[in-house]
Amino acid sequence: MSNEDDDKDDEEFAIRHAYEKYGVNGYYSQYGADYRNPHEDRLTTIVGQLVKKWNLKPTDRILDLACGSGEITLILRQLGFQSINGIDPYTSEAYEKRLGTPIHGKWTFEQIADGCLESEDEIYDVIICSFAAHLILPSYLPLVMIQLRFIAKKLIILTPHKRPQLLPEWGWNLTDEFVHERIRARLYTCDE
Q1: What pTM does this model have?
Q2: Cα–Cα dist 60/82, whole Å
Q3: Which run of H or of E encompasses 17?
């Protein structure tokens, strides 16, 4: 293992420790303006793989859900994607500073569960949620997933865990899955 790998593991541990200390919302309220995903280099590789494997097209409309500092948006732009909206309640400053464009929205998972995205009248080809879906409170997870199916037919979750496990009764069917360097990529599709 290289020193760079040790640094990333230390940074990942530090973020997990901060989640325990401040809670997820508290951590991002304090540090969201400067947030950077410590796994961005691995995300570049896995996003390139999933674009090819799952036949995403540069003309697809993408929602970068819980977009952080914009790492998924940047990677997709480098692959030729142009229609990408990012939303995140805590890291909008980091996203806007890094990308030079305004964030689309600052909605929380709780607000999404209440239907705020459906009222926006935005329809997407794909939603990508990177390193955030496992942070949705279990009591909100079914409601968030049900709401997401109203605005897209494909959902991609990138997670360092096996969580979350989506149930078919929430409207999403697991279509494919692969793991690259401890990042799990899952493709879900919606029947409706």
Answers
A1: 0.82
A2: 8
A3: helix 3-31
Read off the pLDDT of residues 44-82 as tens digits, 9 standing for 90 and up.
Answer: 999 999 999 999 999 999 999 999 889 999 999 999 999
Q: Side chain identity at 124, as an amino acid letter?
A: Y
What would the mean pLDDT of 120-134 be, rounded to a whole number?
Answer: 92
Q: Residue 137 corresponds to which amino acid?
A: L
90: tokens are 């805590």
Q: Choose the weakest-confidence range: 21-25, 76-80, 143-147.
A: 21-25
**Which tokens belong to 83?**
């229609």
Where residue 31 falls (left for φ over 0; alpha for ψ -120 to 50; beta otherwise) is: alpha
pLDDT at 33: 47
Listed residue (69, 50, 89, 13) closest to 183, CA to CA: 50
Q: Does residue 39 surpass a pLDDT of 80?
A: no
User: What is the rounded average pLDDT for all residues in the chain?
Assistant: 84
Measured between alpha carbons, how far apart are the two ends of the chain, in Å?
46
User: CA dihedral in degrees (77, 129, 56, 102; nearest 10)?
Assistant: -30
DSSP assignment of 59-95 equals TS-EEEET-TTSHHHHHHHHTT---EEEE-SS-HHHH
Find tokens 């790998």 and name the residue.
Answer: 5
Burial label for 143, CB within 10 Å (0-12, 13-18, 19+), is middle
- CA distances 155 to 6, 11, 33, 150, 168, Å, are 32, 28, 26, 11, 13
